[in-house]
What we know:
alpha/beta; 2 domains; five-stranded parallel β-sheet; binds N-carbamoyl-L-aspartate
Amino acid sequence: xxxxxxxxxxxxxxxxxxxxxxxxxxxxxxxxxxxxxxxxxxxxxxxxxxxxxxxxxxxxxxxxxxxxxxxxxxxxxxxxxxxxxxxxxxxxxxxxxxxxxxxxxxxxxxxxxxxxxxxxxxxxxxxxxxxxxxxxxxxxxxxxxxxxxxxxxxxxxxxxxxxxxxxxxxxxxxxxxxxxxxxxxxxxxxxxxxxxxxxxxxxxxxxxxxxxxxxxxxxxxxxxxxxxxxxxxxxxxxxxxxxxxxxxxxxxxxxxxxxxxxxxxxxxxxxxxxxxxxxxxxxxxxxxxxxxxxxxxxxxxxxxxxxxxxxxxxxxxxxxxxxxxxxxxxxxxxxxxxxxxxxxxxxxxxxxxxxxxxxxxxxxxxxxxxxxxxxxxxxxxxxxxxxxxxxxxxxxxxxxxxxxxxxxxxxxxxxxxxxxxxxxxxxxx
Length: 429
Ligand SMILES: NC(=O)N[C@@H](CC(=O)O)C(=O)O
Ligand SMILES: [Zn+2]
Ligand SMILES: [Zn+2]
């Protein structure tokens, strides 16, 4: 196994450091290291960050390998600076048994580019009727701790209560896709001025907010951990702020696209901008940025949702919702949170690595880059700018909403347990 000596990188806090990586760990971290025999990486001008952790990735395997596989999604993740991703359960078959979550976990290990932590479904087949075998998934080789019916809301309050109670036993968490289905029937985009102008059926903010309000109260009632997926409205931020002040054990995520884009994008009828929850208004974007900066929203999660060409290049109403995001997440967060002065690099490290690793219970990730820590890290060029070309993405799907945009900051190296997964900006395999 090659020993790497990273020379002259800067940590998120600003200090310069050399890092010596051997046998999967950071064996030394100091201002000047002279490691003879090591392969030297000149990191002058680069930032060394703990590997990013994505709590919300759709890898599509098993079932839709034409859109993404565990391997292609892992490669996209590594290129985005990630060393761990949590794979959502809405595959085919659904990841609602120990067998399926172990299959995904093994595929991730075999690809070997990031740690793939499977998320288990809350209900059988995501149908919202019967609890899935949560205990068996928790005890499986995949050691599942996060359960989600993402794509669907666990709508029945009694079932939601039972699920919250169940996962308490192993400190698990229910990740809710907050969408009151009766309020979003036929919805195509955010309900507001733009949807009225375009004549499209709207997805009102209250459909999200009503479920978050209900579920924080349920989590408080049973004393369980709740996580809210892809928070998208100003009202949701307000409810979360209230719930956290009350001591309720709730965490929340926001996606890069909800930090940057608004419902005005629907005006061109390009389905690449169709997503659940939908792109909202400028006021929502401002509230989400503020909520992420002040910690009301704990983390950024990509909701990387690859879709095959035929599912996206069609009429808006028939297109599947979702956009890819692993390879652009860091850059979009830099553009929306750092370049606006709302957050610094330490804040980014917390929201994209430390906090998601803590929520997911991934002890080898989100660690300070100090001697003894696992060598899961990424080297970023903060001065670089790059143009997003859908054809150049490592993901098997092309549905990025940022085509043609020039974004700040680029991942140059990523290491998983001391082994490069990204080498001078290119995936190693
Ligand atoms: N975000 C989306 O619009 N789509 C996701 C499901 C989801 O995250 O709700 C998908 O699986 O494609
Ligand atoms: Zn969702
Ligand atoms: Zn999702």
